[in-house]
Amino acid sequence: MSTKEVLSEGELDALMDSVSSGDVPLDDSNSSQGCQPFDFNTREQALLAQMPALKTINEKHALALVQSIQSIFKVPVEVEPSVITLIKLEEFVVSLTEPSGINTVEIKPLNGASFVVLSAEFLSFFVNQYFGGAPGGATFSSSRTELTPTERRINDLVVASFLSDLETSWAEKVALNTEPESFESNPDFLQIGSPTELALKFSFLIKVFEWEGSIDWVIPYSSIEPLKNRLGNPAATIKQNKPAANWEGYFRKELLSVDLDVSGLFSSKNVSISEVLNLKAGSIVPLKVPTDVMLCIEGQPYCLGEHGALNGKKSIKIKEILNYEDGSL
Question: Crossing angle, helix 120-130 and helix 53-73, to 10 degrees?
């Protein structure tokens, strides 16, 4: 039997989410119609809808990039954040062209490596701008398969600024620490995890004069998923926490029916270890019959009382409740 998965983990989650929400009926009333189509793209909306703060963070990042790029290249620039998409890593790799500025970045405390990608057209254009080329001009040739050393330096400059802005825009939700790990220009040599692993793609459209390019940040979805609560809807969090008062009343009510072991301690006596070792069947330990008796709840002293009998049964009449707070015990 083949061990290949029919559905990926992400696709299974999408199917289960739709079953839970009622989008996929469980009854067999329509079984005569045969198989029904299911759009796994619905998982994208379901997952991203749980983290609305990502959109706000993305917008902050875009505004910060405007200032950074203008400061570096001294040109008027517009940065528009694109819609965050959920893709498979293999789809991301296939979409890359050779050469590209593919930067592998470690972002703590997020797990897994992420990628910041600058196209060759992007790097060529900003090399031209950086060294005073004609406004709006680009010198990239599609026949090239390698990046020039100058394009590499521009790549490092832009990526450093991009990561700095990333840390700033995320600071309110998560304190990130970014560190570039490696650089690759050929997608075929890119080291990734599982090709079918889901990833989030953050794209920023860069506009300078009549030219347009983009910066893409791709990160495994599994590294963002643990942050759902921080990136979720604050109103939903408050709503989830609101029923806590009802739980308090419930426990107070249920505690009243909990059974406790009540015992009476009549007397105690200190004996040596040698006396204990000499005890055997029939031995008598002399005890002084007390006037007061200690009443214990689950083995813990609770009050002082007087032993006696009530309705033919041994009983203890409570005389004093022990107070733990004033140190009387």
Answer: 40
